[in-house]
Specification:
By secondary structure, this protein is mainly α. Among the domains are: 154 residues, no CATH class; 110 residues, no CATH class. The protein is built from 10 helices and 11 strands. The strands form 5 sheets. The chain has a 3-stranded antiparallel beta sheet with strand order 7-9-11. Strands 1-2 form a two-stranded antiparallel sheet. The protein is elongated and about 105 Å long. The two termini are 29 Å apart. About 10% of the residues have low confidence.
Length: 410
């Protein structure tokens, strides 16, 4: 009984924390509490299974506990008629509760696991935000979400926008020399960086190869930041700036096959990378930054997210948007989003956006229950707790009834 009472008490404390901490301004704890909520909910489910088994054991074997094997005194009265411990109605109620609890337990095995995965994505998005802040402190601006890198002198001359951004980050960058940025043996490439690729490139930096850093080929996915040489920041070796984020090698991907890396979310079924949109420090988002797959691919989003139906007021208008595609591995089109109208908006081709996870809304975009409070406390949790309490009462009632019968028999 002590374990069950401990689980119930811990769950109640988490609920109180969910209600009190936001009011005190502690907004950095939702990820931790989501994980704790999932663990406790699983523990409650396990408690229900144990208590249900114990109740059935006692009811079928007429034993108070599995260890109580001592014979009881038996009365030999001709008129002794034992009353049933439970009536037919009580038995039917027990069966109904057990079936309901079995359904909730099955749900609780999968839902908290999904909650833990959601919390992991949320935690990683928060880490991205911190890393982008570090990048801005170092370079004075957020990473872009779309630009070109050129290996040739003529390439830089043809693109004033990309040249201006590189000059903003590295004012002494030498545009008068050719360089092999991607280490493929030539200096003629024009490398387009999408928003997803910009997230990896500017937070992770270049990846060393034998040709530019003396590393072995097996280290080709190891991102090492940028050289502090102001004339050639893309070169290897020497003292470094960054990396600002530690990217796991096995989650680096290249969905458009251009040799530039994106980073996929920590979800088992997900191959799509994180989307990154920059507002260019409040100057405005660019729809041209939306595509991450090859041109014409239906999986490409066509827009970012806006607060209004006219799509004129974007979320995080002075910073950036980060989007995870969720378990369905599809981003959807993007556009207007409001929590109160999500069920009406996410239909048709926008249905893929229901499980998207972003840096401007806690939980998935289409989950209305997560909008009410960030602990995810819902009716399933309430029913689980009520089930524990009900089974505890049944066990206590069963023991008291047997105690009375034993007294009468004696």
């Amino acid at each position: 009984m002590r374990f069950a009472e401990f689980v119930v008490l811990l769950f109640i404390l988490l609920v109180l924390a969910a209600l009190i901490l936001p009011a005190l301004g502690h907004n950095s704890l939702p990820t931790l509490l989501s994980v704790l909520n999932a663990i406790v909910e699983l523990a409650v489910s396990a408690t229900i299974v144990v208590l249900t088994g114990r109740l059935l054991f006692e009811k079928l074997t007429n034993k108070a506990t599995p260890d109580n094997e001592r014979p009881r005194p038996v009365a030999h009265h001709t008129n002794d008629v034992r009353r049933p411990v439970f009536t037919i109605g009580t038995n039917l109620a027990i069966i109904s509760v057990m079936l309901g609890e079995c359904f909730l337990v099955v749900q609780s095995v999968s839902v908290p696991i999904s909650g833990v995965r959601l919390a992991r994505v949320r935690s990683e998005i928060e880490s991205f935000k911190a890393s982008i802040t570090q990048f801005k402190v170092r370079f004075g601006t957020n990473p872009p979400s779309g630009m070109m890198l050129y290996e040739s002198i003529d390439g830089w001359k043809s693109d004033a926008r990309s040249r201006a951004f590189v000059r903003r980050l590295w004012p002494q960058f030498d545009f008068t020399r050719n360089r092999d940025i991607n280490n493929d043996g030539d200096t003629e490439d024009a490398i387009r960086l999408s928003g997803a690729e910009c997230l990896v490139f500017f937070l992770g930096g270049v990846h060393p190869t034998v040709s530019n850093a003396g590393h072995q080929a097996s280290d080709q996915f190891c991102l090492t930041g940028f050289s502090k040489n102001p004339l050639a920041p893309f070169s290897g070796g020497g003292s470094r700036d960054g990396p600002f984020f530690e990217f796991h090698e096995n989650r680096l991907t290249d969905v458009d096959g251009d040799g530039c890396f994106e980073y996929r979310a920590p979800l088992v079924s997900t191959k799509a990378p994180y989307l990154y949109f920059s507002s260019y420090d409040g100057a405005g988002y660019r729809k041209d930054d939306c595509a991450i797959y090859l041109p014409g691919d239906a999986r490409n989003p066509t827009d970012l997210y806006y607060k209004d139906k006219d799509s004129t007021v974007p979320y995080n208008s002075d910073s950036f948007q980060i989007i995870c595609a969720g378990v369905d591995d599809r981003f959807g089109a993007g556009g207007h989003f409001a929590p109160e109208t999500a069920d009406e908006v996410f239909v048709g081709e926008r249905k893929f956006e229901r499980d998207n996870i972003t840096n401007f809304h806690f939980g998935t975009l289409g989950n209305t229950s997560e909008k009410k409070n960030w602990l995810g406390f819902n009716m399933r949790s309430v029913c689980l707790l009520l089930g524990v309490g009900f089974i505890l009462l049944l066990i206590r009632s069963l023991r008291r009834s047997r105690s009375c019968l034993n007294s009468e028999s004696a």
